[in-house]
Design brief:
- There is one protein chain.
- This protein has 129 residues and is mainly beta.
- The chain has one helix and eleven strands; from the N terminus they run βββαββββββββ.
- The relative contact order is 0.31.
């Protein structure tokens, strides 16, 4: 287990941008693991958003955010980011960051909740039309 803390959520108008951050409590528990973002809108199931390989060499995105969202990681800061541009009302959700269950795990499109073993507390993103 590792402590993950998200920040950066808020209320913006459609077309706007936000950058979410996910800070890990320690370096070794961050740098060796794939990381991901999921979101859950009211009344809906959790949805995969994006994932990044432990070394940053591969990224995958849900089709619904591809071309608008960018996932990056800064190992020196033990932090992962999700840059969200051209936001839409349907992006409204609680966003959660997560660390892969196993070190050096590969990443792929359509990551599942069970691929990740540690979760942050979530940050609310609300997009007004």
């Amino acid at each position: 287990q590792v402590q993950l803390v998200e920040s950066g959520g808020g209320l913006v108008q459609a077309g706007g941008s936000l950058r979410l951050s996910c800070a890990a409590a320690s370096g070794r528990t961050f740098s060796d693991y794939a990381m991901g973002w999921f979101r859950q809108a009211p009344g809906k199931e959790s949805e995969f958003v994006a994932a990044i390989k432990w070394n940053g060499g591969q990224t995958y995105y849900a089709d619904s955010v591809k071309g608008r969202f960018t996932i990056v990681r800064d190992t020196a800061k033990n932090t992962m980011y999700l840059q969200m541009n051209s936001l839409k009302p349907e992006d409204t959700a609680v966003y959660y960051c997560a660390r892969s269950r196993y070190a050096y795990a590969s990443v792929r499109a359509g990551q599942e909740l069970g691929d990740f073993g540690s979760w942050g507390q979530g940050t609310q993103v609300t997009i007004s039309s």
